[in-house]
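step=encode ok
step=design start
structure_in=
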């Protein structure tokens, strides 16, 4: 018996693509879990570090409030997370250069190196696979994934459309 009635009438190639995407997502989630475990941090901690590294690369000051908004968690939870990450040597807090009442948070060079080292080999292999696509195929894949991203972001709102 199939998962849902629409699978019975969906073209076989479409079902294969969606099944392959599910398999990829499962493998990616497992890889992220292994990464978090090897770095001894939770998912939100790793997301916070990636946010801090991106902000620094873009020349932006990362604040606790920006981290709250990015992670969609309460200020008290961000404070506890930052305490934990600071104790582990992954982040440092600094006075904000324009707002005396605020702080900026930066990932330490060691945290940056650990994240890059842990993820670099996998990202390099993924880029190698993508580089093997001709530009037209790459555009098709990127467009397909962009459309799926929109659907995922819409969630249940999109089901009525």
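sequence_out=
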């Amino acid at each position: 018996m199939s998962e849902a009635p629409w699978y019975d009438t969906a073209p076989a190639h479409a079902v294969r693509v969606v099944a392959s995407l599910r398999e990829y997502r499962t493998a990616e989630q497992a890889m992220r879990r292994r990464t978090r475990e090897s770095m001894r941090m939770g998912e939100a901690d790793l997301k916070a570090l990636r946010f801090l590294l991106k902000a620094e690369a873009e020349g932006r000051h990362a604040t606790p409030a920006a981290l709250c908004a990015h992670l969609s968690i309460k200020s008290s939870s961000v404070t506890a997370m930052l305490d934990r990450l600071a104790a582990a040597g992954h982040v440092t807090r600094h006075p904000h250069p324009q707002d005396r009442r605020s702080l900026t948070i930066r990932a330490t060079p060691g945290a940056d190196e650990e994240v890059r080292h842990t993820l670099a080999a996998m990202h390099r292999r993924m880029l190698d696979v993508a580089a093997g696509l001709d530009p037209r195929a790459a555009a098709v894949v990127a467009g397909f994934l962009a459309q799926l991203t929109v659907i995922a972001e819409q969630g249940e709102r999109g089901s009525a459309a």
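step=design ok
step=annotate ok -> The chain has three domains: 1-39, 41-107, 109-155.
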